[in-house]
# Entry
Amino acid sequence: MANTKNLWNNLCKVVEEGKNVNQKEYAFEGSIKNFLARLGWSTFDENLKEQYQVPVGHQKIIPDFVLLEPATKRPEIVIELKRPGHNQKDEDITQLRSYMKQIYSLFGLYIGEKLEIYYNQLEEREEPVLINSIDFSGNNEEGQYLLNILFADDFDEGKWKDYCNNFIKLKASIDYWTSDKGKSELFQFILERAGLSPDFTDKLTSLLNLEVSKISENRGEEPELEAEESTEEVTIEGVSEPATPSPMPVTIKKYGLNDEKPINKRKFAYEVIKRFVDAHPEMKFKDIIKYFGKRNDFNAVLIAEADWKKKTPDGQGRYFRNELVLTDASGKRFLVSNQWTQNAIEKIIVPVAEEMGYVINRS
# Structure
């Protein structure tokens, strides 16, 4: 399969060049048609319809492109194109939604100055909803993931439904926890778990700095994975904070072993666990995971590759990445979490490194 990172960056280049030359819409359509062909969608293979004409009463609707399910030829994705220099208008999306409803397609893509994904919940009989809006920026992981499920040969309606439904659930969850009721419930939970009396409410409020990026009413944007230089200290799954975190007044971005160059938390955790495994070639995964599990009150930091593969594509990429793989004494492969907070590093990884005789340098 083609490299989705290169494909995405190539698409970003097409859009950027189109903006620079104020490319006309018909020319942009040609560029996108060529790009879709690289993903396996083409008129030759009869899984792409250009200027697809559908009779509606005494009129016809003509979407720019319609992608057909390769086996059944059922219309799956309607694509509405606008030139890269165009500023999206309400009527652009109204038109796309109308096409989706008339054709009974589940999914819609708006491609212009940005890329948006829409989901037509046919059983709900409501307007197709915006799932995600992706900027055409280089190396954008959201864009790469979308291309990964857009290849014609591997097209799976179930994966697209999972993608859309996960965003809907995420939005509902964030909307709740950023509401007054959700904030009150979360605050009360923290008070109870910390064992504080109500007298300390004001003190807790002054110390607690919990920031949540709320998804707007019309957007389904997913929070990005931790960046290389991220200082984010709150995670939803993977490595989370213990019930009573110890204070960390100084934010540490990078860690290093002895005189080695400091690296970000994710790479540092993986490197220490890898050296631990290398130092104990007789240990099997069940013993390794028990060893790390006894050291903390955190969620799982390791997962067997077989269990990881059972997760949805979204679940696979979010908390464990397939490049962070290690092998135990029996040859069993397992993955290391890619989500690490400073507190988790200090509680789990630093003690292991120090037990192996390393001096930790922080920056």
